[in-house]
């Protein structure tokens, strides 16, 4: 059952449909940090690759508000690598999404 929900989850991330994404995130049957596609990409990888700041913010906010230890969960999620060894930060840098806070 998890695979079906991950497919819908990745579809919402790919489309940058934050309403659907939030609906799926609040589903009891979805563990977003465990969802990976066939290349080992997480939702954060896809959001960064698509230059979707809104999706990344949605995912970060969800973790901050719903995880018992959000800081360590976010660290693990951000540091997760694809099968090729890329993190979401690699993709964000590639797409020019990394900005210095003012």
Describe it for me?
With 102 residues, this protein is mainly alpha-helical. The chain has one domain: Ankyrin repeat-containing domain (Serine Threonine Protein Phosphatase 5, Tetratricopeptide repeat), CATH 1.25.40. The chain has 6 helices and no strands. The chain has helices spanning 2-15, 18-25, 43-49, 53-66, 70-79, 88-94. The protein is globular, with a radius of gyration of 13 Å. 24% of the residues are buried.
Q: Secondary-structure blueprint of this entry?
A:
Blueprint: H1 2-15, H2 18-25, H3 43-49, H4 53-66, H5 70-79, H6 88-94
Provide the CATH architecture. Answer: Alpha Horseshoe
Percentage of residues in DSSP E strands: under 5%
Which regions contain 5 or more consecutive residues with pLDDT less than 50? none
Number of domains: 1
Named CATH topology = Serine Threonine Protein Phosphatase 5, Tetratricopeptide repeat
Estimated helix fraction: 55-70%
Could you describe the largest sheet, including whether it forms a barrel?
A: none
The CATH homologous superfamily corresponds to Ankyrin repeat-containing domain
Give a concise summary.
By secondary structure, the chain is mainly alpha-helical. The protein contains 6 helices and no strands.
Write a concise keyword list for the protein shown above.
single chain; 102 residues; mainly alpha; Serine Threonine Protein Phosphatase 5, Tetratricopeptide repeat
